[in-house]
Amino acid sequence: MDNWSNAWCNNKWEDSRFLWKESVLQAMGFAELFCLVGWTAISFSQNAWLLDIGRFLAGYGVGILSYVVPVYIAEITPKNLRGAFTAVNQLMICCGGSVMYVIGNFTSWRTLALIGTIPCILQLLGLFLIPESPRWLAKMDKWKECETSLQRLRGANANISQEAAEIIEYTEMLKQLSDTGMIDLFQRKYAHGLIVGVGLMVLQQFGGVNAIAYYASAIFESAGVSSRTGTLAMVVIQVPMTLLGTLLTDKSGRVPLLMISATGTLLGCFLTGLSFLLQDLQLWKDSPLLALIGVLIFTGSFSLGMGGIPWVIMSEIFPINVKGLAGSLVTVVNWFGSWIISYSFNFLTKWISSAGTFFLFSVASGLTIIFVAKLVPETKGRTLEEIQASMVLFTRKS
């Protein structure tokens, strides 16, 4: 099943305070139940309305998971490993999608949907084995449980006193602030984080990733390339490049990797657009090869950084008192952007041609480079509390 219609489901989730009034683990369990029921409904549907309900429920669950999982990972990992651990989430998504692409070639869509219930069941069971976020426990005034969770996460012999003190001190400071509503989220002190979070998600989607992912077969066929060859090549390059990005996140830093990734997606879209232009003008007989190269460069470059790092940064830049609201807004923007691009892609190719559409995507990648260079903070090797302090300082200077 394609995923673009999930965008409609994700923006239904507005009560984001649930995430930090209730346990983040409970939120994940809540989301997995929706996914489990959704995939089951899809698999056994005998009419369109049950199929639609299944897609709605699965999309609702995925919308929650797409935010709470990176946030949970960011809150439990040490600062020197946080980026890599959070990026592993994207690697697993990539691997899961690739596996389902392969399985889908040999099974029916009903069987594929039923297979989708297996990860839901495994995660539901796994939630009983993993510790709660120390930062969430601190926010709930569960200081002893906070230290116990942190000790479990860092190891029995690790010295957690300094890290625990930083978490408690920062949490106490946040408690002096009043409860934050959606209107309060747009105060100047949160502006930098909100601009970075929303901006990265908009640019990620408007770079054309889901247009290429969902319409890959049609794009390859229009360019004169075998759709099977093209999609298989995408899968082959996507996983190792995502793995490379995961390994580099905490070594090279977030910002350099984003810049390299956006440059690659710009080049990939430009080459793809150029191949369609040459095909329209009948100037080069090998233009299908150029299209294949362009799409593969885009796929590899996107997997390297733009696929996962925006979610890493999004999980790091918001203080815990607005993390639920801000993260929900950013997630809705991401999925809504995905829907806009997925829905409009066929119209764009008719209105401004396939070449013009990919040139437009390359412009979005160019804007991403400028945006990252000017506004995105480097969060490598810094605690979440240090990141918040630097965000406040940047806002005051600007």
TrEMBL record:
It is found in: Membrane. GO terms for cellular component: membrane. It comes from the Eukaryota. Gene3D superfamilies: MFS general substrate transporter like domains. Keywords: Membrane, Sugar transport, Transmembrane, Transmembrane helix, Transport. Its main location: membrane. Residues 1-380 form the Major facilitator superfamily (MFS) profile domain. It is a multi-pass membrane protein. The keyword Transmembrane helix applies. The chain crosses the membrane at residues 24-44, 56-74, 81-103, 109-130, 194-217, 229-248, 255-277, 289-313, 325-345, 351-373. GO terms for molecular function: sugar transmembrane transporter activity. PROSITE patterns: MFS (PS50850). Belongs to the major facilitator superfamily. Sugar transporter (TC 2.A.1.1) family. This is Sugar transporter ERD6-like 5 isoform X7.
